[in-house]
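Our preliminary data section would be incomplete without showing what the modeling component actually yields. Below, a chain of 485 amino acids is followed by its predicted structure, encoded as tokens that our downstream tools consume directly.
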Amino acid sequence: MVTAQESERGSRFVESGHWAYEYLARLRTRGYLGELDPLLRPHHRTDIVRALSTLDPDTLPRPVADWVRLLRSEFGGEERAWGAVVMAGSRAANTDRLDPLRPMGEGGVWPSGTAGAWFEGGHVAAESRVLGDLYLDHDPELRPLRRPLGGLADHSYLSLSVAFAGVTLGRVARNWGPAGTRGLMISDGPLAYPQLGFEGRFGGVSVQAFTAELDTLQGARRYLAAQRLAYTAPHFAIAVANAVMYSGPNVAPSLQLLNPVAFLAFERENPPGDDRAQNYMLSVQAWYQQGGLVLHGEALLDDVDVRTIPGGYSRAPTRYGFNAGARVTSLAPWLEVAVAYQQVSSFAYRAFGAGDRYDYLGRGLGENFADYDQWSITADVFPPVRGLTLTPAFVALRQGEGDFRIAMPSDSVFRLSPNLILGIAEHTYRLGLRGRYQPMRQLWLSWDIGHNVVRDADHVPGGRRTDVVALGEVGLRFDFGARRR
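Predicted structure:
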């Protein structure tokens, strides 16, 4: 049990890629853990511990009781003042791009490892990790990294917290979206980037904000500032967020964008003579749970500009993204069924200046692709085997030729382009089986095997291709620490 005094102490972030978020999301979907924001990662460890302390697995049905016991094995026990974490694993695939709908390359096996240490004391929490991952040299989207010693700083930060607020400096991967999905505006797809962040919470109302330094691209220094205001209740959550990408050859962090409570600040004024470029985004998310039904969605408006343009120019294509999903858990205790749809417009995340492109080291800060729409139907099956989940899935993807990694066309061509699907659309239909087996907190195995049928392959009319695309991962995690006195 986390006491009120302990909740005011500095608390570590549970990294966005931690296996626990899958089980936390399942419990939230079934009406438990009502105080946790279902549209946000990472959470603080003490918040998860406090939420789990309200559940007694001996009174819960299977498989819910199994999930609670697994999470308690990770987040229970004595509070520790300092410790270390070591993770090792390997990914394997027959594609270099780890996206089963958009395979590229021949694939391989890529071992990885992480080692780090952490400290919690008073109102302070600190953590430092080094990541070694051979896949970083094979990712077809990632720009080359300079790693003189072979490792990479990852999930490393210093935070200072009081009862209702906290400040963080370091590298933290964030995802503003439901667990299992990428937020359209802020996602954990890119590598963790250096940032200064603020958070506050007053009952069900919370605010998160950060400003980040991104990589320099074609001589432009690039920065990202984002704010989020959310309300969370046991069966409902809503969040409004905005983000500004700004760049230029001599740009520095902007004081006007450091304000953590400047929500919906549409005025982003450049000083006279400033050559800074800006790209503004607005996002709204909602999540609702009632009985055995969960509904969620997000709408993104990219590069907001409501000005009229003299000279008879036609209005430019709208740059946007949205998704909507529903999940049903009441069919049987061992079965959940979900349907989801997502659409990202032709020119979303794209900019006329390379420095304003919405990415970090080549990976999208939000979604990793544009100019597509996608349907998916999945069923999560929980057999009577502890830690096993089987997920048959059907996905239909329509992918246009728009890509935020390439330069914008001329203004005249841009203004005559469609909102969705540039050029010839490639249609991919995938029938697959995903799975996860985690008998204990230290060990897990996951996979995604499926058959793809591709029409108009490579955006060539009449082109046809069939592929069996398979991905797998195995992971080990060990924690060590000293008890708090």
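The helical segments are 4-7, 20-29, 45-52, 64-75, 411-415. The two ends are 16 Å apart (CA to CA). Preliminary results of this kind motivate Aim 1 of the renewal.
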